[in-house]
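Lecture 7 notes: from sequence to structure.
We start with the chain below.
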Amino acid sequence: MAILIVGFMLSAITTRSGVKLALTSENLVDRAKLLSAPANRSANLNGENEPAADRVVLEVLNGIGIPGLAGEFTTFLRDRGYDVVRFTNAQRYDYPRTLVINRGTDYQHAVGVATALGLELNVHENMPKPDLHLDVTVVLGQDYQTLPAYRAMQVAGP
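Predicted structure tokens for the same chain:
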């Protein structure tokens, strides 16, 4: 009986779209998990969503205590294709300048984020920490108003 039901489901899957699928002995549950990932993420065979390979995963920390600042920069970076998975306050609020910190294995991710914010290249720091599962950390500092990204946000408005 179960084989009959699975066979019916497979025939429906292969004929609705008009495309014949070559099915192997893969577990169909695993295939369904892979197909159900959100557009900007991929899923592994355990069904856990992971960032797509071409996405830079980062966090934005408010290092000066201005309410909502990390959220504004998060929106700016997401609009440019970055996968901001966390935005919150830093542990302290005395950062004089904005920092871009490399957390992963590809330093060019930090360079790309700094470029998107309009930071000079000498503000990058290389502090890999793979257990964070991040590529980059941005800490907003007291210089945030001088950043081209901030000026662009002001022109664009809410």
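Points to note: Residues 1-52 have pLDDT under 50 and may be disordered. Residues 2-51 form one domain.
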